Amino acid sequence: MTDAPRPPFEHPANALVLEIFRANGALIRLGDALVKPLGLTSARWQVLGAVAQGHGGLPVARIADNMGLTRQSVQRIVDELAEAELVGFAPNPAHKRAKLVVMTPRGQRLFQRASERWAPYADAIAAALDPRRLRSTTDNLATLRGFLDQTNDRSSE
Questions:
Q1: Higher pLDDT residue, 149 or 118?
Q2: What is the rounded distance in angstroms from the CA atom of residue 121 to the CA atom of residue 131?
Q3: What's the whole-model pTM score?
Q4: SUPFAM superfamilies recorded for this chain (predicted)?
Q5: What domains can be seen in the chain, in order of their start residue?
């Protein structure tokens, strides 16, 4: 008599990961729809957000690290944003070649417009969830990300 294998998403960690993937997909679809009228994609909006969060003082590699993406993919998007005159580059006192990505006034205005379009959704999410559960979910996801980052660091040694 053999035990039947357990369905893969019965495991709580697998169910969580699947739900994160689904939520990510839903966020990207919503983001694309929100910023398309502004001539942006979710990816470009996310990078603009990372530049805004870094107060315009981060090189591409740091933006990529903060976003959990590869440097090459962020570099491609930054180059597109620079071509559209939404970001520019400033000297980096800590590194001669790795310029700092800075938002242009045009980029700041566009990011502000995108943020205004997103605000009602952020408010609706916050209103739909108990504030303690929302904070707890955020903390749990940050802990999960930290665990995964450590695991990735160890596996690449």
A1: 118
A2: 15
A3: 0.86
A4: Winged helix' DNA-binding domain
A5: 13-119 (1.10.10.10)
